[in-house]
Specification:
heterodimer; A: mainly alpha; ABC transporter involved in vitamin B12 uptake, BtuC; 14 helices; 4 strands; 2% strand; B: 2 domains; four-stranded antiparallel beta sheet; binds adenosine-5'-diphosphate; binds magnesium ion
Amino acid sequence: MDMKRDYYEDIRFFTSGVTVFWFVVLIVFLSAFPFLVKNYYVYVANYMAINVIVAVGLNILVGYTGQISLGHAGFFAIGAYGTVTLMTSAHVPFLPALFLAAGTAAFFGFLLGLPALRLEGPYLAIVTLGFGLTVTQVIGKLDFFGGRQGLHAPDLVIGSWNLDTDREFYYLVMVITVVMVVAVRNIIKTRVGRAFIAIRDADIAAEAMGVNLVVFKTLAFALSAFCTGIAGGLYAFVLRFIEPEIFTLLMSIMFLAMVVVGGLGSIMGSITGACLLSWMDLQLRNILSFPHVGTWLESLSRMYFSITGVSNIQFILFGGIMIAIMLFEPLGIFGIWIRTKKYWKTWPF
Amino acid sequence: MPFFQVEALSISFGGLAALSDLSFSVEKGEIFAIIGPNGAGKTTLFNCINGIYRPGEGSIRFKGQSLVGMRPDRVARCGIARTFQNIELFSHMNTMENIMLGRHLHMKTGLFRGAFLWGKGSFAGKEERENRQKAEEIIDFLDLQSVRNAFVGALPYGTQKVVELARALATEPELLLLDEPCAGMNSEEKQDMIFWIKDIQDELGVTILLIEHDMNMVMDISDRILVINFGRQVTLGTPDAVQRHPEVIKAYLGEEAALEPHP
Ligand SMILES: Nc1ncnc2c1ncn2[C@@H]1O[C@H](COP(=O)(O)OP(=O)(O)O)[C@@H](O)[C@H]1O
Ligand SMILES: [Mg+2]
C-alpha cells in the first residue's frame, strides 16, 4: 500500500472519472427530460422526485438510525399546509415559506424523537402512527387550514419567474431534489451520519464512545422530518389543492415501503424504491382501465368486495411486496444489486 | 488527589447485591487488574464507571471529578474509554469507520458543515482527512491494515476484539477499561494483545483497568490486582502479594488448572 494516501478518498463524492461521467450524464438527462416526453411524464417525474426526497429522508431515520416511523404523512402534511398557509395568509414568498414549513416539520420531528429515546420497535411504531393520524385530524378540524374543504395552492412565483406549468415546476423540483440528496449523502458520510449508523448497530457502544443519544436520535427525527416537510411543500404545488384526506396512514405506509423495497440504509436504494413505487402507485390507480386485468378485477370486486376495494389495490400490493422483501431479500433492491455485482465480478467471460 | 478513585461503591439488582462496599484507587500510568470468578461483579463495576449503571451508593472520582450520575457520553468526554466483554461493534461499518466513530468526540462537523462537504478544503473535508490520518495511525499500531475496509461483522472473533481496542484508543483516553480483551483468542493473538496493552501503558501513558481471566497474563502485566467475589473485595495488592493470599490460592492457583484460562 502506498505510504502517503489521501484520506479524503474515503468520503469523496466523485470516486473516479467514471462517477463524474455518470453524474454529468444524469444531470444532462434530467435537464433534457421535459423536452423529450409528453406532459404527463413530466408530472410523473415530479411525483417521483418528491417521493425520492421523502424516501431519502425517511431512510435516514429507518435505514441509518434504525428507528421506525409510521407517521411521515404527518410531516408531509405539515410541509404542504405550512407552505400554502404561509404564502396565502402571511404572504411569505415561496422559498422562505417552504423552508419555514419544513423547519416546522423538523420541530415536530424533534418532539416525536423525544419518546423515541425510551421506546423501541412496536411501541415507537404506535406513537408515530398516532402522530400521523393526529396531524390530519387536527388540520381537518381547523378552519384556518380549510378544514375538510381543503386549501388551494396559490400561484407559484419565485422572484419574477412564474412557474405555472409542470415543465417549469419540474426544474425547481429537480434542483431541490438533487441538492437534498447530495446533502443527505454528505451528512451520512461524515460525523453525524456515522453517529446515526452507530446508534443503529450498537447504541450502548456509541454512547460509550461519546455519542449523545438524546441529541442524535432527535436529530435523526428532525432531519428526516425536514426532508419530508420540503417534499410536502412541493407536493402541494403538484396537486394545487390539498385536503386532510390525502395524508393518510396508507401514505405513511407507502413511504415506508419505498425505503424497504429500495433497501434500508442505501441512498441509491431509496431513490430506486421511491421511483418504482411512485410509478406503481400512479399506474395502479387506473388499474380498472387495464385491458383484461381491469375487467377481471372489477367482476371479482363486485362479487367479493365493495367497488372502492379495487381503487386502493396499490396498497394491498405494497403490503405484499414489503412482506416478500422482508422474507426473501431484507436489503431490498440494493441487496439484489450488490449480489448481482458480485456475480458479474466472478463471471468467467 | 488520586487519579481514579472508587469509594464504598454498592449496586444491587432486585435485591441481589452485585457490588457491595467496594473501595480502591488507581494511580496514573498503572495497569490495574480486576479478577474474580464469573458473576463476581467485574463487568458491573465497569458499567458503573462509564455510566451505563447508576450505583446505589458510593462515589467514583476521576481526577477529582465525580462520575456518578453522568451519562456514558459525558464520561467518554472526560477521557474514559472502554471495550466490552461481549463485543459491541458497529457491525455494518468497516474497520476504518468503526475507529472513526472513536474520533467522534474530537470532531465538530454537524449537519450543516457535513451537508456542505464540498471538497478537501471544506471544513468537513479537512476534519475528515485529519481524523482519518489519526485512525490510520491506530490501524498501523494494531496491525489492522489487512482488514481496514472489511465489514467488522464478518471478521474473526479475535480480530473484532482488536478493532474494539482500536476504537477505544481512537478516543485518546486517559483511562482505558478493558473487559476480558483476550477472551476467545488463540495464544498468538493473546501475545499480540499483551504486547499492545503494555505499549499503550508505556508509550501512550494510558492508565488501564483490566478484567481478565488468564492468570498468567494478569500476573505478568499488572502493577496491582484487585480480587473480588460476590461483589466484595477479597484482596488488593501487587501480583506477588495477591498470589500468596489463601483465598486466591484456593480459587485460582491451588490446582494445576489454575494457570489455564478460566472458562
Ligand atoms: N442489568 C442487570 N440486571 C440484573 N442483574 C445483573 C445485571 N447486570 C449484572 N447483574 C448481575 O450482577 C452479577 C455480576 O455480574 P457481572 O458484573 O456481569 O459479573 P462478571 O464479574 O462475570 O463480569 C451477576 O449476578 C449478574 O447476574
Ligand atoms: Mg463480565
